[in-house]
Specification:
The structure is a homodimer of 136-residue chains. The first copy, chain A, is α+β, with helices and mostly antiparallel strands and 136 residues long. The first copy, chain A, has 2 domains: 12-78, Orthogonal Bundle (Arc Repressor Mutant, subunit A), CATH 1.10.10; 82-136, Dna Ligase, domain 1. Chain A is 38% helix and 24% strand. Chain A is built from 5 helices and 6 strands; from the N terminus they run αβααββββαβα. Chain A has helices at 13-23, 31-40, 47-59, 101-112, 130-134; strands at residues 29-30, 63-67, 73-77, 85-89, 95-98, 117-128. In chain A, the strands form 2 sheets. A 3-stranded antiparallel β-sheet of chain A has the order 1-3-2. In chain A, strands 5-4-6 form a 3-stranded mixed β-sheet. In chain A, β2 and β3 form a beta hairpin. In chain A, α1 packs across α2 (31-40), α1 packs across α3 (47-59) and α2 (31-40) crosses α3 (47-59). The radius of gyration of chain A is 17 Å and the shape is flat. Chains A and B meet through α4 and β6 of A and α4 and β6 of B. β6 of chain A pairs antiparallel with β6 (117-128) of chain B. The structure holds a DNA duplex (30 and 30 nucleotides). Chains A, B: This is Transcriptional repressor. Chains A, B: Its cofactor is Zn(2+); Mn(2+); Fe(2+). Chains A, B: Pfam families: FUR (PF01475).
DNA sequence: ACAGTAATGAGAACCGTTGTCAAATTCATG
DNA sequence: CATGAATTTGACAACGGTTCTCATTACTGT
């Protein structure tokens, strides 16, 4: 069920710069942050271009996207190419990648049980990370 | 006893209407949807008021908030009693309630594994129900 | 009833994101 | 290398959800 679509992407200076910038940061970055970083780095890239490419990369599974608490989309180079989820701290925003075969199976099974096909699922786990919990 | 923070909330027609509308829907609703529903229901409530109250309710833990894939905030009355999830058909909207102890345990375990506490989770499973699948 | 204070509503302001479209870049060919 | 077709880019406008502003209205305790 892996689906590398026939993606026809042309390698451009901008696209490379964006991927590069992203790969150098272990943290999640917003499109605006990347745009700013590229701007001050001399190699300016249009804001719209940054958005477009990040979206495309996310669609291709090259990067992870999550929404911050205030709805901003933030991206990060994928640590694993596989399908996975995140556990997000509602205190500091720390996000940890986790995989969970059991959830995948459960989702698939419970959907099939009711005759559903082409199943997709969204799982969000949030809590307080150790540091934030201690800090309260 | 833990408690009701000294929240000085005044009971108003608007606030009640919002809570009411929310409690009648098992699904997550956006502020705009609630605003629209109240509007056509005769008892109009200002959009800003809907936003303010939903935020307040969320802050007080009366309702759950999650962000849709496109960044919109959606709210749902807290199901303190029967915690369950839904499998929603993206064709016709059919929603089936399902429970899943395995998911609950997985979420708890995976969070604890990374030192997270006060864990909450949201799980949404979507696909095409049998009818819709056949119809394509 | 009355004053004090929280809540409301209409609309403007915000801000992240997406759309527009002409100009620039890339690729495949001749 | 020249050329043309198809992508991609970028500046800026437009969008949409959310928040802010502030005058007006509705509760509350006395």
């Amino acid at each position: 069920m892996t689906g590398q679509l026939p993606t026809t992407r042309r390698p451009t200076r901008q696209r490379t710069a964006i991927a590069e910038a992203l790969s150098h940061s272990p943290e999640f970055r917003s499109a605006q942050e990347i745009h700013a970083r590229l701007a001050e780095g001399g190699a300016g890239v249009g804001l719209a271009t940054v958005y477009r490419n990040l979206q495309a990369m996310a669609a291709d599974g090259e990067v992870d996207v999550i929404r911050t608490e205030d709805g901003e989309a933030v991206y990060r180079a994928c640590a694993t190419e596989d399908h996975h989820h995140h556990v997000v701290c509602r205190g500091c925003g720390l996000a940890v990648e986790v995989t969970g075969d059991s959830v995948e199976r459960w989702a698939e099974a419970v959907a099939a049980e009711h005759g559903f096909v082409q199943v997709r699922h969204t799982v969000e786990v949030e809590g307080l990370c150790g540091d934030c919990a201690r800090r309260r």
